[in-house]
Amino acid sequence: MQAVKPSIHKITGINIATPKGYYASGLHCGIKHKKLDLGLLYSLVPADAAGVYTTNRVQAAPLKVTQENIKQEGKLQAIIVNSGNANACTGKKGLQDAKQMQLETAQKLGIPSHFVGVASTGVIGEHLPIEKISAGIKDLVLDDEIKGSIDFSQSILTTDTVSKNTAYTLKIKDKDITIAGTAKGSGMIHPNMATMLGFITSDANINQSDLHSALSYAVDRTFNCITVDGDTSTNDMVLMLANGMAENEELNKNHPEWELFLDALVMVCEDLGKLIAKDGEGASKLIEVNVEGALTDKDARVIAKTVVGSPLVKTAVFGCDANWGRILCAAGYSGVSFDPDQMRILIGDSEVVVDGEPVPFSEEEVRNYLKGQEIHITVLLSEGIGSGRAWGCDLTYDYVQINASYRT
Amino acid sequence: MQAVKPSIHKITGINIATPKGYYASGLHCGIKHKKLDLGLLYSLVPADAAGVYTTNRVQAAPLKVTQENIKQEGKLQAIIVNSGNANACTGKKGLQDAKQMQLETAQKLGIPSHFVGVASTGVIGEHLPIEKISAGIKDLVLDDEIKGSIDFSQSILTTDTVSKNTAYTLKIKDKDITIAGTAKGSGMIHPNMATMLGFITSDANINQSDLHSALSYAVDRTFNCITVDGDTSTNDMVLMLANGMAENEELNKNHPEWELFLDALVMVCEDLGKLIAKDGEGASKLIEVNVEGALTDKDARVIAKTVVGSPLVKTAVFGCDANWGRILCAAGYSGVSFDPDQMRILIGDSEVVVDGEPVPFSEEEVRNYLKGQEIHITVLLSEGIGSGRAWGCDLTYDYVQINASYRT
User: Fold this and answer.
1) Of B58, B326, B407, which has the smallest distance from its Cβ to A321's Cβ?
2) Greater model confidence, A234 or A151
């Protein structure tokens, strides 16, 4: 677990609308059977915006529209999201539909349409039921902080079993700043963003181009370090808004408290990433792999991601089997160069491999440890001081069941 | 299916010892409970040898020993293989054990020890029961062609449910040449060789350095295009022997019938690769993905491998779900650049995506097709004339079951 720095405080609850000037809402417009499927996030004033998008060659229509919007002034004031239908592989009509969602939201709120971001998640290849969405947009009411936050965080879910929320506050000089986040994602989760949506709000006043750097930095170390099944989707996106309403002295890369802000943002993204990994389709456990002693931090992250993504490691954890060989083997095929004869591996606190060879350990103790809900695997190398972590989940019968019949 | 050229003929049966001058044998020496676990392949005369090895940073002791051997004169005359224990992550004692296997086999056969290749497969991190193996080596008897071939092909198996064999003959000028192969592999199968052993024998007379090129060419297009679960092991190896006893005019890259020889070798490797994919742990179906119209053959193979390796595609095929979106999505994250708006996808003969968008198709027809045992998926691009194929299997409950409890 990452220790919370004394100057950064965690806020409990569901709080995407907690930072100053934010409102949220969610309702059922009829794309799904019963659950909420349309959400709106709104800032009283235009907010500096940054986005990180799927690297998939196939990008869904709403991603194209949102990227274009942010390019114009680097600002967003609202985000409209639907779940149940991804508006991906839907051609020209798909683009029109995304633009219509954007336009109608802008009209309702009385703001320029390029201040509205659009996101969709769900089944791909089917056209949006745009009339239902239009009617839904009309019905959306910006609720109070708690109800709005709850409804919005629910409205973006698909196969998720829980909504995913976190928030932290910190002081920049004498001003309190809040960063809050909500995310969805369960299957198709992999490095480089996969059927994952993340929304982060902050009332920080922050230099616009540095906001983008900060988000990229945080996403690389968190969302891009989670994997459920190695599949990367067409619709992934993390959007961050910072509306400046905390009235702090402008944050930028040279500000003495920039690192503190970055730490808080990483904490928000890490919490959401771990919540997604833990809620992986069919998952029964969260797995965290920590790699130290690599040549670089990036090398360490690559090894960590490879180990946590190995189906054989995942099934071994599911079966509570202390199969250190699979951990060692996955590290070996990560593509990163290291000396296997100096490798150490721990499962929980139990050392299982030293200098590349197994050492005696209590099978029973490790088996009991593996029955827990959060499994830590540590890989220690002797190449340098690079470190990195990655998160995933076990591979279970339920994963197969969920995905053998998703569409039908 | 690759059409067999009129000048190349398939030989049925189990025939690793069929090419002129080869003998094989297998027995139970006690590493496993009951099944055969020690095999020997022998050529009457030293054979030109080529090997392709795992790319995993962690290489098992027998691979190190075998590579060293082949480096000396480029020749092998015998291969000793055990299953049930991989002799991987076993440190200095592991290397000693591999060398002892080699030496005792050489002494038994009266040949130089660097003419003996060594291979092991099975559990990793445990020392070989070397006394059992030593006793087994003494007991090995080079049997007649059929019994020897059957026993050897059985002795190399681990979680495989069937032994995997193929052979082809072709004429080079007026001489008949035979190429035969046997392989093992079921779990941990992925591009770049994964707990897979392949042994290919031929009586061809072939230029030694061109033999290596030929094997690499064939392996790249076959063994390296199969995936079961994305895990790459410490012990993979394909070894080929060519002893020249067919007395053909020496084959080399400039020989007019070089291509024919290459075709036959690819057929041997492709047959074995497909047999491995079909026997993937828990698999109920073989999946073949064929990509055409990519910029290069390599691009096409990368896309094909990514699609056939996607857990979501694999579970959809298991569930007989015509989920074209997952195919399109996997192609999109393959890392290969292409225009998704010109992409076509077929499941069997049914066109499901044209110009990047779904088209109406009979769900019932495709569902019935997906109930078959061999599933063909075709991805057509408009980037060039590159084509490539890859093979894999569906992801089933049985995969999870097998791997949640392998070690225990």
Assistant:
1) B407
2) A151
Check residue A49 and give its pLDDT.
Answer: 96
pLDDT tens figures, B84-111: 998 988 889 999 999 999 999 999 999 9
Structural domains in chain B (count): 2
Distances (CA, A) of B158 to A221, B52, B83, B86: 39, 20, 6, 10
Same structural domain, A138 and A19: yes
Give the model's pLDDT for residue B190: 43
The amino acid at residue A131 is: E
The answer to whether the CB of B120 falls within 8 A of the CB of B98 is: yes
Instruction: Choose, out of B329, B382, B401, the residue to mutate when testing the contact with A (most A CBs < 10 Å).
Output: B329
User: Is residue B229 domain-shared with residue B333, that is, in the same domain?
Assistant: no
CB B167, CB B179: distance < 8 Å: yes
Is B306 labeled as catalytic in the residue annotation? no
Q: What is the CATH number for A330?
A: 3.10.20.340
d(CA B141, CA B29): 13
Return phi, psi of residue B386, to 5°: -70, 135
- Selected residue with higher pLDDT from B188 and A228: A228
Percent of chain B exceeding pLDDT 90 equals: 70
Query: Are residues B323 and B391 located together in one domain of the fold?
Result: yes
Binding annotation of B for substrate: 158, 184, 195, 281, 403, 408
Domain that holds residue B66: 8-278
Residue after which a domain boundary falls, among A275, A300, A319: A275
Q: Identify residue A391 by its one-letter amino acid code.
A: W
Contact call for residues B168 and B10 (beta carbons, < 8 A): yes
What residue ranges in B348-408 does DSSP mark as E strands? 350-354, 357-358, 374-380, 386-393
Residues of chain A positioned with their CB less than 8 A from the CB of B331: 57-58
pLDDT in tens, A310-354: 888 888 899 898 889 889 988 988 889 999 999 999 999 999 999
**Token pair of B180 as six digits:** 């035969």
Q: What is the pLDDT of residue A405?
A: 65
User: What residues of B form the annotated binding site?
Assistant: 158, 184, 195, 281, 403, 408
